[in-house]
Amino acid sequence: MINKDVKKVLVIGSGPIVIGQAAEFDYAGTQACRSLREEGVEVVLVNSNPSTIMTDVDIADRVYIEPITLPFVTEVIKKERPDALLATLGGQVGLNMAVQLSDAGVLDQYGVKLLGSSLHAIKHAEDRELFKDAMEEIHQPVPESDIFEELEPAIAFADKIGYPVIIRPAYTLGGTGGGIAHDRYEMEEIANRGIKLSPINQILVERSIAGWKEVEFEVMRDSADNCIIVCAMENIDPVGVHTGDSIVVAPTQTLTDGQYQMLRTASLDIIRYLKIEGGCNVQYGLDTKTNQYYVIEVNPRVSRSSALASKATGYPIAKIALGLHLDEITNAITGNTKACFEPSIDYVVCKFPRWPFEKFTLADRAIGTQMKATGEVMALDRTLEGSLLKALRSLEVGEGYLHLKKLDGQSLYDIRCLLSRIDNERIFVLAEALRRGIEPEEINRITKIDLFFIYKIQNIIKMERRLMKEGLTEETLKAAKRIQMPDEAIAHFAEVTPKDVENFKKKLDFHPDFKMVDTCAAEFEAHTPYYYSTYGAEDEVKPQGKGSVVVFGSGPIRIGQGIEFDYCSVHCVWTLKKHGCEAILVNNNPETVSTDFDTGDRLYFDPLNPESVDNIIATEKPDACVVQFGGQTAIKLAKHMDEIGLPILG
After folding, report:
1. What is the DSSP string of 255-287?
2. Which of 18, 127, 526, 620 has its C-alpha lying 20 to 30 A from 291's C-alpha?
3. Nearest to 17 by CA among 71, 125, 92
4. Comparing C-alpha atoms, which of 309, 316, 350, 354 is closest to residue 335?
5. Comparing C-alpha atoms, which of 649, 563, 529 is closest to residue 13?
6. End-to-end Cα spacing for the chain
7. What is the pLDDT of residue 150?
8. According to the model, what pLDDT value does residue 335 have?
């Protein structure tokens, strides 16, 4: 049961949005505040970001919009006298604040206990030296490494173990200050920066395992030592690219059962040793040829991957830190099972990062161990090809398809050279290489991307060729739509107009079906209306019809369109519900409160473009829509809504 001594909890937010720390912490913090209040606990919140739902008067009993610094938070503790502190939902800012409060003796002085991760867990996961010792104690392999606080010994160590080496600063967010050094010159530059940016001036220098497969496990543990795996995710990009900058799929696609069980057991051993109560994210590098693996990192807090795991499975991650046991929490999606089971998913999830390079045209587009993405999109489909193509449509960049115009003019030699560059356009280069006839085995050798994923992209290219050869027929249309190829792309390859494709679909009465996200692969009946579109499946939607209104969200977070539009969309939904309307929300950003399964009456996780939105409108038959709260993304749909005759409110 929840700890009876805890009557008032101080929750620390994550402050302003920075690259590497976006809306996912507003989502997690908001969910935790609501859960605490449901349990009758008084909630005091400290955060300095006015754009968040978390700093709303409805979310906590008291909100302090103050800087998250030691003097200010100490004053709040002195005034409010909370029984406990919840810092694991405020990203790196919250975690570092908990450590500072403890080191300054504030927690002891006012008798404040830590909920979620203990100080022991935070220090053992964040302090590179303690982390290495902890992993050795439970016989978990870590790459050969050493800890340094000065530059010269770090360089000497790198010279000894040989380049390339990875530099990881302690207590920084999103790999800030870190990187891969391929020679002594890069080593000096990155190590020097890392030492300066680490709050404790400490870096870890480790042997590089760049090129190995990267796998993440999202693990939950409660105070009774019940542990479950919420989700195992596999990065399409190999080790060497920060997971926030990687294209990630769930569930894992290429692991053998033996490899999966080996890493699952390791994840449970790690969270139990660290005694984390709540969520924890463990990242591994795996050499699939030898089955050798290394533990890369453990996040003893909610991370961007946690928000993804929560939305991908429909599992309420933020509720466990409150002291409840997993077998006491009702699974909100099914309504009749408990949270003490591992979600099973019968679809493929693809997360695609959103980078800010269109704003910074001269910026270095290379991606590595330091996160550069400002946000991300998530897509669900029954096929991996489908979820990848849906994710590309959701990004709202370029053509919304697996193609870049600027690559058309490049020679075969140029394409081969571009394949060896690790940047934000590599997946497009990979597709172009397949179009030009470069063999998947050669692409795998250059990029170290698993052949399985290269073959999946090749399936998309084969579909393009089939459309060019056979044109638009019932068979080609159904095959192309099965992998979520957009109408524009089908029209382009079949040499017809998008209108022709649309009319042909109407003639055949061919449309997508909507499937439910239910955490249990339809084993139990689910009560939560949380859907995604797919072709060739059974439709699971019962339309809302009269009295329903569609609210368009704002898509991925990027520079110029941030969390404030999520705030507005959520308030719009709450207001519609209060006035007796059925609110149907459409969005594709896994970090936000709007895509929480119980924010609207219905949630559609789909791209925000005319084709996808038309399918939802045709299924739900709403009375009206709202476009003004989803930023530029939703505003762009206004003209189309007018054309199809759906009234726009506001």
Report:
1. --HHHHHHHHHHHHHHHHHHT--EEEEEEEEEE
2. 127
3. 92
4. 316
5. 563
6. 46
7. 94
8. 65
Find out whether the peptide bond into 610 is cis, omega within 30 degrees of 0. no
How far apart are the C-alpha atoms of 21 and 14, rounded to whole Å?
A: 8
Q: Is the pLDDT of residue 522 over 80?
A: no
Average model confidence (pLDDT) across the chain: 91
3-state helix, strand, coil in the chain (%, to 5): 40, 20, 40
Residue with structure tokens 């380049």?
163
| Token representation of residue 112 | 């404040």
DSSP per-residue letters across 131-143: HHHHHHHTT----
CA distances from 178 to 118, 229, 247, 303 (A): 26, 29, 20, 18
Strand 582-587 to 602-605 pairing: parallel
235's tokens: 């990065």
Lowest model confidence (mean pLDDT) among 334-348, 474-488, 576-590, 625-639: 334-348
Q: Read off the pLDDT of each residue in 207-215 and give the average, rounded to a whole number.
A: 94
Counting Cα atoms < 13 Å in the Cβ hemisphere of 615 gives 27
Residue 342, Ramachandran bin (φ over 0: left; ψ between -120 and 50: alpha; else beta)? beta
Q: What six digits make up the tokens of 203? A: 């870096």
Quote the distance between the C-alpha of residue 255 and its chain's center: 21
> CB neighbours of 18 closer than 8 A, spacing ≥ 6?
173
Q: What is the pTM of this model?
A: 0.92
Question: Are the CB atoms for 254 and 115 separated by under 8 Å?
Answer: no
DSSP labels for 609-623?
A: SHHHHHHHHHHH--S
> Is residue 587 packed enough to be buried (19+ CB in 10 Å), middle (13-18) or exposed (0-12)?
buried
DSSP 378: E
pLDDT exceeds cutoff 80 at 318: no
Answer for the pair 518, 314: CB distance below 8 angstroms, yes or no.
Answer: yes
> CA-to-CA distance for 17 and 359, rounded, in angstroms?
17
Q: For residue 1, what pLDDT is reported?
A: 46
